Amino acid sequence: MILLIVESPAKAKTINKYLGSGYKVLASMGHVRDLPAKSGSIKPEKDFEMVWKTNSGRSKTINDIKKEIQNSEKIILATDPDREGEAISWHLEELFKSKNDKKFERVVFNAVTKDTVLNAIKNPRSIDKDLVEAYKARLSLDYLIGFTISPILWKKLPGAKSAGRVQSVALKIICQRELDVENFKSQKYWTINSLFKSNKGSEFSATLLSRDHKKLNKFDIKSEDEALKIISDLKDAKYRVKEVNKTVVQKKPQPPFTTSTMQQEASKRLRFDPTRTMQVAQRLYEGLDNPAIEGGLITYMRTDGVQIEDSIIDQIRDSINSIYGEKQLPKNKNIYKTKSKNAQESHEAIRPTSFKNSPEMIKSYLSDEQFKLYDLIWKRTIASQMNNAEFERTSIDILVKDSNNIDNLFRATSQHRSFAGYLSVFDDTPNDQEESDNEPVNQSNILISKDDNLVCKKLEDISHQTEPPPRFNAASLIKTLEELGIGRPSTYASILSKLSERNYTIVDQRKIFPTSNGRLVTAFLENYYPDYVKYDFTADLEEKLDQISNGDYTRLSLLNNFWANLDESTKDITEISRKE
């Protein structure tokens, strides 16, 4: 008998279908050992020795595994293909190998399908010690910050729950935005818009762009009186088309999903919070208990890579050709590279495991949430290998002399979609429009020629007011964390939920606000532990953890430098009064 161990019962159930009677598949239910959440679990004076304890809630699971190991000739550790998964396998081996002379093997697969699982079993390896060292370093950093700073917070700030390596930086970002909103001074400005009719019958709007050959900047028209004076001077003027420029603009599809972009889009389009998104994605990855669906439906959902295997791109292109036609297929494959800071790119992007499983075909087997997320992943993946969308953009310059013989230039822009391309599958234009400025864009095709005379049907002054920067929502905060290189794809959901659980933030109408507790904790950390809430400092730690994963840096070097600074800072802070 061969024993294969994964983390979850759902994954175990799916894999069990692929293996013969010579295998037994068990779930470890996550970590079997933990670092106890109490003082003394890490000993800096003994090279940061870690004191592990078996998880009390896993005693039945541990006993079941122990019993099966005794009846097995070989143990295959098949936990998730990332740092945390490697750590779970390491803990299992550490816990059971010393008591047995059985052979332990480690296998990884990026998708829970028959072919990938059987192929992985044929290609075992040993535990990746560098990945385990990185896991231990990350856990040590989080523990040392938590158990050094948190007790001071409890004494000095009643109601403060804890500080954390990544959570405190995320909280600082939210608090800083709140400060920006509070300190924002709104400013009024005016623009002048017109409604024109061409002699070919087209009606369109335009904006006053320049006066006396000088471009009008945002705040150049400072009052309504100034705006009305310009309108008065333009009364009875004659309008002529000075220039018509037509260009074809191409819009490229976006890459397939990473953890971060999946969470952002699910938040925007489906109104899922990041934790829910990851729970639903986990089920799609592990496979559903349904005889009509074989294996997991998507690849591993914790990834910052945007690349897809070459052979899979061929399958996507075949699907595009058969469903949408050859016209939607670019000559060459679309190749993507990640832009996010500190991206590891060790895994493929999130994609369906089989493109035969179209969302509509399997809809009846999925819950409403599962269908919505799978549909989003499927469409984004297909769209990523489709042709660009094309737009015909027309820019019309209209010249007019006012009653003071001053040249005024109005500009109208129109955009007309001439070829849908990938937008026929995954329409991301609404997101673009949310971010656009106030300048009107005419969506219809304007029939007009150079030197045409125009009838001005209306001139109006429009007042605007500058808006404060928007408060973060889940999607925009995750995007900011990723851009700054703070945290990892797998941690974004837990960061947001921890801040909420600890009463440091609240969510109102999908916007994230800091509580008074959250702001007090941030003020304390910025004043007395400034290094630990600096964006660069936190991003640099993530980079060092990646270097440890690759064998280019050591856990002890990182922890020695880190602890020396933290220990020194703490000595000075214990004397601070609560009032201060």
Protein described:
With 580 residues, this protein is α+β, with helices and mostly antiparallel strands. It is 40% helix and 19% strand. The chain has helices at 9-16, 59-70, 83-96, 114-122, 129-156, 167-183, 224-233, 259-270, 274-286, 310-324, 359-362, 368-384, 429-434, 474-484, 492-501, 516-528, 535-549, 555-573; strands spanning 2-6, 23-27, 33-34, 42-43, 49-50, 53-54, 74-77, 103-106, 188-198, 203-211, 214-215, 239-251, 389-401, 407-419, 453-465, 505-508, 511-514. The protein is flat and about 95 Å long.
How would the blueprint of this fold be written?
Elements: E1 2-6, H1 9-16, E2 23-27, E3 33-34, E4 42-43, E5 49-50, E6 53-54, H2 59-70, E7 74-77, H3 83-96, E8 103-106, H4 114-122, H5 129-156, H6 167-183, E9 188-198, E10 203-211, E11 214-215, H7 224-233, E12 239-251, H8 259-270, H9 274-286, H10 310-324, H11 359-362, H12 368-384, E13 389-401, E14 407-419, H13 429-434, E15 453-465, H14 474-484, H15 492-501, E16 505-508, E17 511-514, H16 516-528, H17 535-549, H18 555-573
Parallel strand pairs: 1-2, 1-7, 7-8
Antiparallel strand pairs: 3-6, 4-5, 9-10, 9-15, 10-11, 10-14, 12-13, 12-15, 13-14, 16-17
Helix pairs in contact: 3-5, 5-17, 5-18, 6-16, 8-12, 8-14, 9-12
